[in-house]
Amino acid sequence: MKSIKSKVLFIISIVCIVSVALCSSVSYYFSYKAIMKESTNKVTMASQKYSEIIEGWLLTKTKFIDSMVVDVEYNNKYDINYLKKYFREQAKENKDIICIYAGFNDNKFASSDGWVPSADYNCSERDWYKEVIQKMVYLILHPT
Fold first, then answer.
1. How do residues 23-42 score in pLDDT, each as one tens digit?
2. Structural domain of residue 114, as residue ranges?
3. pTM value?
């Protein structure tokens, strides 16, 4: 008799363990999917928020550079010493800007940080200069 009782108990135990394992697996699967979906949505929303903040910041800096370009072109102030001083003043007023610089096709170069290129420096050979000339735009570059 004991052997039948233990066999029944064993079978019921196996059924219970398999049922619990199956329920746990299904529950884990759906929980995982729900958590991943929620996490992905939150990350996407945060990314969009920060991209809008960065885009707004870049737009502000772009308008700032536009105003500088208009000022220099309108007043026809292409003297290198004037540009160095002007760039220095503008960079000092704008804490987000590390350096403002401009290179010209006659190899003149003006920089807000006081950097003076060597005699063999040719800005027209630089990638940034070529891109500006090719696209007729100004560039905002990462610091190197």
1. 999 999 999 999 999 999 99
2. 77-144
3. 0.62
